[in-house]
Design goal:
CATH topology of the largest domain: Alpha-Beta Plaits
Number of helices: 4
Largest sheet: 5 strands, antiparallel
CATH class of the largest domain: Alpha Beta
Oligomer: single chain
Strand content: 25-35%
Helix content: 25-40%
Low-confidence stretches: none
Shape: elongated
Radius of gyration: 18 Å
Length: 141
């Protein structure tokens, strides 16, 4: 029903920006494809709250990128992690994965394959959703 009302508001009433509630996060792409500007998924909000309360392994999927099969991930290089001391190119990340940047000591550093990771580094990663487990394994073991 949210989809139909949103489309009517957009096309018949010329509402410039339509936001709709989505019950199933998998349907967000459909809503976007059918003209809804923004979606809010209560399921995703609750999931994010639960994830933030769980003990952290230094790996946090932040959000899927709408209209693609990619997601944004934040990962911290923890003491004793297999990624500590390795170069980005030496991590063995899955094909189609890119490290967008590294936050080190409060500053942002450009990430390239020769960059050696240090304990405490926070990586911003763009990865195919299907490869999330492989990315986690490459970084955390």
């Amino acid at each position: 029903m949210n989809l139909i009302i949103g489309q009517l508001a957009k096309w018949k009433c010329n509402v410039p920006r339509v936001i709709a509630r989505v019950n199933d996060p998998k349907n967000e792409i459909i809503f976007k494809a059918l003209g809804i500007d923004e979606t809010i998924s209560s399921t995703r909000v609750i999931m994010n709250v639960i994830e933030q309360e769980l003990p952290s392994s230094g790996f946090l999927p932040l959000m899927p990128l709408t209209g693609s099969h990619l997601e944004l991930i934040e990962a911290e290089v923890l003491l004793g992690a297999p990624s500590a001391g390795k170069t980005i190119g030496g991590l063995g990340l899955p094909r189609g994965t890119a490290v967008g940047g590294i936050v080190r000591k409060g500053g942002v550093i450009h990430a390239d394959d020769d960059m050696r990771l240090e304990v405490g580094d926070r990586l911003v990663i763009l990865a195919p959703t299907k490869d999330e487990a492989e990315v986690r394994k490459a970084l955390s073991g």
